[in-house]
Design brief:
- The protein has about 240 residues and is α+β, with helices and mostly antiparallel strands.
- The chain is about 25% helix and about 35% strand.
- It has four helices and 14 strands.
- Strands 1, 2, 3, 4, 5, 6, 7, 8, 9, 10, 11, 12, 13 and 14 form a 14-stranded antiparallel sheet that branches.
- The chain is globular, with a radius of gyration of 18 Å.
Length: about 240
């Protein structure tokens, strides 16, 4: 499946199936939790939503993933740049620590490997993003800043004039949504890891050594955020 992202902002975009032209999912971000449909509402999530209103709007916002019918099938609650609560259908996770396996993150000089709980792994570099299966075979790939020519994404001639395309292999239908949610989180992390925008588009090119230092520090901050999430402090879901 090849998905076109209609906006450069992954938190407010549509993911369009290039083969059919249908919108598979749409993301929308608001300054507070998006109300869920009556059929899918749960008391735990309602409690979390009420607690959000106590925080300044600039510190917390919610990204909803909407299906073809416009129903919110997943949500990410952001506190600054960190995801504090993640909901995927009826599965409510206490932050990224329950979606990614921080214990097995690998940081190499020019790439980072971030495994997910589904035994897929995101491989992150300054200019590529790929999804690997448990045999390290590539099953997904991001094509950034591309035009769509002859049924395939190709790099655009002028920087920042194209769109991003996410290609995913034959994933089970029940795993697609979680992969999309993990992609939204990894895209945000990738920007922080490598300052990818300035690196790719040449506003301020950095030597590789500087990029390595920046990536290592960012991963240290990521691991620290995982530890904070796992710590036994009261969960926002336990109200």
């Amino acid at each position: 499946m090849l998905l076109k992202l209609t906006s450069s902002d992954v938190r407010d975009t549509a993911l369009v199936d290039c083969a059919t032209g249908d919108v598979v999912y749409r993301t929308s971000t608001s300054d507070r939790a998006r109300p869920r449909s009556r059929a899918s509402s749960t008391s735990s999530w309602a409690s979390t939503s009420r607690s959000q209103e106590k925080l300044p709007l600039c510190d917390r916002c919610t990204t909803a993933v909407l299906d073809r019918e416009g129903q919110a099938v997943a949500e990410i609650v952001w506190e600054g740049r960190h995801a504090s609560v993640i909901r995927i259908r009826e599965d409510v996770l206490k932050g990224t620590a329950e979606l990614f396996d921080a214990a097995f993150v690998r940081v190499l000089p020019d790439e980072t490997f971030l495994p997910t709980r589904m035994e897929y792994t995101w491989r992150i570099t300054p200019d590529t993003l790929t999804l690997l299966d448990d045999d390290d075979a590539v099953i997904g790939r991001l094509y950034a800043d591309c035009a769509f020519i002859n049924g395939r994404p190709v790099p655009s001639l002028q920087p920042r004039t194209g769109l991003d395309y996410l290609e995913l292999g034959e994933l089970p239908a029940d795993e697609l949504l979680e992969v999309i949610v993990s992609y939204l989180l990894v895209s945000t992390l990738r920007d922080r890891l490598y300052s990818v925008t300035t690196y790719v588009y040449g506003r301020r090119k950095r030597p590789l050594a500087t990029l390595r230092t920046h990536a290592t520090r960012s991963l240290a901050n990521l691991r620290e955020s995982f530890r904070r999430t796992i710590s036994p402090s009261p969960s926002p879901l336990q109200h």
